[in-house]
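Q: Convert this sequence to structure tokens.
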Amino acid sequence: MEWKMEQFDKSAYPIDIATALRDRWGSRELPVEAIPEHEVLVTLLDTMYQASLLREENSPVQCRIAFVTEDSFESEISDGSSSLHVLRFKVATPFTAQDLRKLAAAAGYYRALLAVKQEPSGGLSVWGMIVTGTQWVNHLEGGRPIGAPLPHNLVIQILAPGHIVAASGYTRILESDSGKLLTDGFDPFHSKWLPQKFGTIRAALLEEFDPQSEEGSQCQICDEFVKDIAQIVVRRVLRLVRMRGHGGMLVYLPDNANETEIPDQWFRFRVRFQQDDSTIRFRRLILKLMKRVALIGKTKGLAVVTLNDYLQMHDAELATIDEALIEFSHLLADMMSVDGSLVLDRSFRFIGFGGEILGDSHVSSIHRALDLEATNTIAERGDSSGTRHRSAYRLVNGLTDAIAVVVSQDGDVRFVACLNDKLTYWPYLP
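A:
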């Protein structure tokens, strides 16, 4: 077999990242006044990168900044009319990597941003804090857009050492990790093949849900609803695992695999779950959610409830279910943090965690997808990746109906599956 040699991309320096960011900003037709001039942008990116390499009290620096002036928050500052809590410093702090290191502890990554502006002298300073609360994270993952919106101004986030994300408000524009622009990847959730793998489970849930039994409700649930909610859960899991910097693996086995010998043939578990109703938490939550949104949909005169309808609903019981789904995501992420793999079936039934993948077969090649449906691929050496990746390749190569999602310590995510009779991986770029 002829191998496609991996080409080493040259490092992207702040000046290169700034150019790419401004290009993408323009291509999305975002307000030009919401992003600084090129030289200022270079300084912002360079300082944030340098800050990301520092540590405070033995913890890596994590923070978010917004390039915005006090004028953008005039009403919030004067009368507190917004749910954003804006605090101004009496004396602005210089915008340096060392100052960010100190301020980051007060402006927790999930709860606040540091507000940065350009002074008349041309220098940059931190003039205050914008407290957003944590609900913005739910919006990033496709969930209900709860919480105060941010203006379209530039936001730069430090995720991990050398790992920077640039956004317009909450909308991701560009990502850089270890001096490399992350441009080579896909979002498999937008593919056709991935939802098809879970089609039987979705159909069973929709069949189990009977709208006529719900207090006379005739409101139906969109066929895509279960898929959309499941994807929100998995996106949240992947974000949590990436942020923790430990890595992990999530494996989906074929339908009803827990009733076969497959789990014991392929895994040595640290913990194997007793297969009772306690392992079908997701199924219970999704059915409860479907019933509630159908009732609310009926009161709104909807014939069919879609994800967009659900995202616009405000209801105390829905909020409780939302919180339970968030906690479910955290539980999955926690189990993935144990060495080995978290193993579910396609209904999200828990099978076990800390699963060591058995077998010693060698996978000589793996295909990297060049598009969502892997119509075009490039063959790579199977041993060119780390131990966690190679074990995932070995599993999916032997159990071709399985799906593995591998998160490396540096945050790289790969979906691994057999498609078009090829063992294939998709680099994940949300």
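The first strand starts at residue 55 and ends at 56.
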